[in-house]
């Protein structure tokens, strides 16, 4: 289904105009509805006229309720602010004030007890209630996505349905049933992109839940016949450590959100030999840039000029993007400027060109300075993750009075094999690093840990970020 690009089109009207609504479903942890029920009903304890033209802060725990509310609110609300559950409540008042929120939509009774400067609270129902009300005139709603700030206070990036769903509008509906799922939370860009893609291309969608384990999610996704699934490399490393990974048999696997190294590409292809495996560059501010389908980390240099609708270039070592899919601006008088004078978004992702292919080396703000030498943690992790006993790793800085910082690594091992002790594994990993890395990049210590923290964004939690 290709959607019109001219006049403002709401998510509700786009879904309503598509076909097979009764055969496509949105599946949550404890709720399920067809797309027909979503467009013919309401999950909110309110009337459309009460919501019309308002700035609405959407703060739910349950992803199913968030999805249903988005279908209902887009085209009616002036602005929808997506507040992810993992963002500290201490930021809620700041976000509400910056986005001029009039109404709080939530499934959390405890939120209204605090004073957040929002005049009205509307609760979500447990289930979709059939309605016959007219929606009236549609407007183009602003979608506000939260993204991390250097001070810990979230920045508010402004999108519209058109900028968020641009790639979905260029995709024809499949002639065979597709069931999407994602490890991402849909209040984050990666999850929202999959939600909109499913809604606009005639697919079903199984959403994850923070209330279930990885094993339970994989079992539920498998039970619903998921054919397409996405997540960060960290999501996939954690999933492949679970024996329940064999509960899903996807036709298509996509990775995004973090640097995709060759080790995780190979592991996913080994686990799902019949699946197409791709990785995508996308960011909250920069939108979707490109897909890579050749099974190799990095991307061919000619990708930068391959799509006339998405302009990309490398300047001062970082990737810059200009397209109709980028965010428009940040909200707030004190917010930084999102785009340069030419309209490009600086993604902050650093690149290195080798033999006609670009490789992501890390984040500009994540460099470790070792005695004047720059070290990208992700580059060291990519080497460590290639070691056959390593499941995943996190490289970080340790303060040092002489060099300023040293490189250390926390490592999660795969199941121990043979008589090798953890100490022997540490020595072997260090030796491997010495053979593959410049001396200043080699970790001074390998710490074997039982697990690494993965945030709700699906990314490894890095203390510098």
What number is the mean pLDDT?
91
**Radius of gyration over C-alpha positions, nearest whole angstrom:** 23 Å
**What characterizes the major β-sheet?**
8 strands, mixed
Distance between the termini: 39 Å
Helix content: 10-25%
Large-scale geometry: globular
Widest sheet, order of strands: 2-1-11-10-12-13-14-15
Instruction: Classify the beta-strand content into a percent band.
Output: 25-35%
Helix segment tally: 12
Indicate the multimeric state.
Answer: single chain
Q: Which class do the helix and strand fractions yield?
A: alpha/beta
Number of strands: 26
Unreliable stretches (pLDDT < 50, length at least 5) are 1-8
Looking at this protein, list some descriptive labels.
465 residues, alpha/beta, 8-stranded mixed sheet, 12 helices, 22% helix, globular
Structure, explained:
- By secondary structure, this protein is an alpha/beta fold.
- The model is unreliable at 1-8 (pLDDT under 50).
- Helix 9 packs across helix 10 (262-271).
- It has twelve helices and 26 strands.
- It has helices spanning 11-17, 35-39, 48-51, 63-73, 92-98, 161-164, 189-200, 214-223, 233-240, 262-271, 377-384, 422-436, and strands at residues 25-27, 32-34, 41-44, 55-59, 79-82, 103-106, 120-130, 142-147, 155-160, 179-182, 204-207, 228-231, 252-255, 276-283, 287-292, 299-300, 310-315, 318-323, 329-330, 345-354, 357-363, 368-370, 373-375, 390-400, 404-413, 445-448.
- Strand 14 and strand 15 (287-292) form a beta hairpin.
- The protein starts with 10 loop residues before the first helix and ends in a 17-residue tail after the last strand.
């Amino acid at each position: 289904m290709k959607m019109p690009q001219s006049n403002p089109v709401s998510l509700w009207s786009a879904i309503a105009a598509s076909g097979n609504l009764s055969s496509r479903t949105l599946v949550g942890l404890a709720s399920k509805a067809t797309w027909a029920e979503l467009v013919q009903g309401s999950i909110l304890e309110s009337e459309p006229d009460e919501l019309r033209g308002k700035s609405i802060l959407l703060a739910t725990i349950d992803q199913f309720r968030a999805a249903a509310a988005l279908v209902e609110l887009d085209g009616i609300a002036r602005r929808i602010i997506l507040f992810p559950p993992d963002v500290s409540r201490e930021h809620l008042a700041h976000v509400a004030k910056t986005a001029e929120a009039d109404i709080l939509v939530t499934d959390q009774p405890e939120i209204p007890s605090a004073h957040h400067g929002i005049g009205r609270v509307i609760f979500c129902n447990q289930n979709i209630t059939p309605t016959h009300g007219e929606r009236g005139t549609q407007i183009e709603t602003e979608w506000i996505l939260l993204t991390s700030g250097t001070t810990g206070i979230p920045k508010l990036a402004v999108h519209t349905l058109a900028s968020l769903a641009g790639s979905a509008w260029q995709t024809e509906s499949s002639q065979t049933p597709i069931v999407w799922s994602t490890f991402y939370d849909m209040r984050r860009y990666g999850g929202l992109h999959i939600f909109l893609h499913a809604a606009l291309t005639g697919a079903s969608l199984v959403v994850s839940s923070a209330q279930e384990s990885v094993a339970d999610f994989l079992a539920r996704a498998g039970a619903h016949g998921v054919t397409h699934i996405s997540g960060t490399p960290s999501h996939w490393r954690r999933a492949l450590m679970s024996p329940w990974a064999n509960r899903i048999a996807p036709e298509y696997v996509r990775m995004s959100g973090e640097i995709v190294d060759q080790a995780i590409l190979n592991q996913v292809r080994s686990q799902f030999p019949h699946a197409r495996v791709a990785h995508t560059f996308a960011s909250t501010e920069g939108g979707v840039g490109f897909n890579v389908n050749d099974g190799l980390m990095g991307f061919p240099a000619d990708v930068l000029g391959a799509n006339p609708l998405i302009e990309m270039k490398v300047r001062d070592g970082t990737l810059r993007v200009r397209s109709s899919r980028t965010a428009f601006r940040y909200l707030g008088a004190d917010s930084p400027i999102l785009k340069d004078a030419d309209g490009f978004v600086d993604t902050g992702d650093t690149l290195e060109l080798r033999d006609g292919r670009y490789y992501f080396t890390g984040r500009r703000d994540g460099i470790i300075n070792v005695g004047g030498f720059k070290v990208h943690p992700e580059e060291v992790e990519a080497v460590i993750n290639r070691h056959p006993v390593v499941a995943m790793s996190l490289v970080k800085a340790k303060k040092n009075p002489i060099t300023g910082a040293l490189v250390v690594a926390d490592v999660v091992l795969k199941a121990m094999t043979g008589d090798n002790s953890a100490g022997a594994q540490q020595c072997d990993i260090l030796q491997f690093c010495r053979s593959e890395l410049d001396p200043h990049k080699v970790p001074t210590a390998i710490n074997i840990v039982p697990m690494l923290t993965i945030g709700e964004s699906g990314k490894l939690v890095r203390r510098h970020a």
